[in-house]
Each structure stands twice: as structure tokens, then as C-alpha cells.
Amino acid sequence: MPAPTLADIVFSEQANHNFSKILGDLKKSNLSITNRLKSIQHDAAFVQKVADVLGLPLVANERSRRVVGTEMSEEGYIQGAGDDTENWAHGLTAPLFWANQSRLLETPEGHLPGLIEELVANSEAGGQAVGELKRVAPRLLVGALSAEEEALRSASSSSKKEVCVVSLVPKTTEKETWEKSKRHMEVGLGKSKTASRFLREALPSICDFVSRFLQEPADHDVETEIGTGTGAGRDANKEVVLLCESGRDLSVGVALALYCWCFADSAGTVRSAEDQEQNHNKPSIRVKLGHIMTAFPDANPSRATLQSVNSFLMDWRK
């Protein structure tokens, strides 16, 4: 039998094209929305069975492999599986999936994006009311930009509750124009992933603005502070309202950054200026993100948003 020639070993251009197309189609079918949703459903059922046997609460946490090296000064980390929901879920959240799982899994793949958009729109219309704010941590509230008018009215009122408003608007604006008043900041970051990336550069200004508001004596507490010689009551009636287009992404990311940067504990004790630049780490950030998600399960900060927050908090250069 003669030895194979190079022509026998190397695929022709047409064969290579067909082979690549087959592999691409196969990968695309495996990564379909339907398959991803079925995987979530099956994984959840498996975890529930294990939890029932052990008598312990368990959480399904998908990862692919451990990467040797560093990420934000860590010794190593577990790389994500590369299936971030913002890349394929079309805005579908966990509560929305579980409430409509049968309908979603029965729908043909080609019709799923449209169905998901319909479910998301109906959820937003019938869920959080226009102007409604969600408290995600002591002194921190988030909401959609539709709540801005009411929030600004509270910020300018003479009531005992002092309010600071940070609006994250879907257009890009110059940093010098962000501070509208002592109690209102309008930050133009743009839309979608662009906004999430620009958030990293905006967080120092946002945190500084909010810190100044929290640390200055409240108008109605000046007399108390002078009389007692302490500043214990200076921030007791101050709240920060954070608004973005959806009320679930950028505003939640900024709330997480402020929760870590401005507050010493879960009771809402305001950090001193000297204490703010302490070393933040992933475990402490994750704990506070857990507090926020527990208080607001419909929150849906994108991976890019959370990366910007982590980068700001754990970068010593700030």
C-alpha cells in the first residue's frame, strides 16, 4: 500500500469550509437558548435532590476550570463558563424564567427572543411601579429613571429626611457637568456595555460626591452636634437614591460600590474619609452583593457592571 501523499492528508478548501460549517452549526445548536434553559432546569433539580438528602441548602454555581495565575491580586481564580446571561438571555431573569419555564421550553428556538422580550416588557409594566424605589441596603435605594422627578422633589424638600440623587443617564456627558447641585448628580455613561465599562472611570467621582453628602452635618443636626460634641447624629436621616434606565443594572452596581466604600457595616454606619480606602477584597464584596440581591431579587447587574465595581474597589490606585 503506497504511503499517503500530502493531498490525501490535507482537506481541500471546500472540505475545510464544510467541516468548519458543521462544527459551527453543532456548537450553535448546543449553545441555543433552549439548551441553556434546559441545563438550568436539570441542574436545579439535581441540586435540590442533593440538598434534600443532605438536609442542607445548596446553590448551583457553574464554573469551567481553575486558572493558575492572578486576577486582581488573587493567587488564582475559577474561570467562568463563558455563558454570561447578558450575551444570550435577552433580559430574562431567574424569577421570570421559573414563573414561565413550561411556556419557554415549549417555544421553538426561533421564537424565543420575541417571547422573552414580551415577558420582560410585561414584567416591567406590571411589576415595579413607575417611580417606585427599592431599598437594597441601609440608606441606599435604587430605581428606574422614571422615579427621578419624585426623588429630586424629595431632595429639595424641607423634610427631616435628606436625600441625595445620582442619575445614571443613557447618554455620554462631560465629567465637569455631572454635579447639578449639592444633592443631585447626573452621570452620562451611555448605554448597555459601553455604560458598564465607563462606570469604572465614573465611580471615584460618584463615591466622592456621595461621601461628601453623607459626612457633612445634616441641617437639622447642627445644633445637636455642637451641643454634644459628637457627630453621631449627623447622617441619621440621610438617604441616597440611585437611578438608571432599567433600575436593575447600573444603579445596583453603584449601590454595591457605595455600600463597600461609604459604609462600615450593614447597619449603615458611615465611614470616615480616612477609612474609605481600606483594602476591599472579593469575599467582602460578594457578601455585600448577597445582601443587595436578597433585598432586591429582581436586580440584574451585568458582568461588565460588576467587573467595573470590583476593579474600582480592589485597585489601590483608584
TrEMBL record:
Q: Which residues form the Rit1 N-terminal domain?
A: 26-64, 72-120
Q: Name one GO molecular function term.
A: tRNA adenosine(64)-2'-O-ribosylphosphate transferase activity
| Organism superkingdom | Eukaryota
CC per GO annotation: cytoplasm
Pfam families listed in its UniProt record: Init_tRNA_PT (PF04179), Rit1_C (PF17184)
Q: Where is the Rit1 DUSP-like domain?
A: 184-313
Tell me which stretches of the chain form a coiled coil: none
InterPro entries in the cross-refs: Rit1, Rit1_DUSP-like, Rit1_N
> GO biological process: any one?
charged-tRNA amino acid modification
This chain belongs to which protein, by name? Answer: WGS project CABT00000000 data, contig 2.11
The source organism is Sordaria macrospora (strain ATCC MYA-333 / DSM 997 / K(L3346) / K-hell)
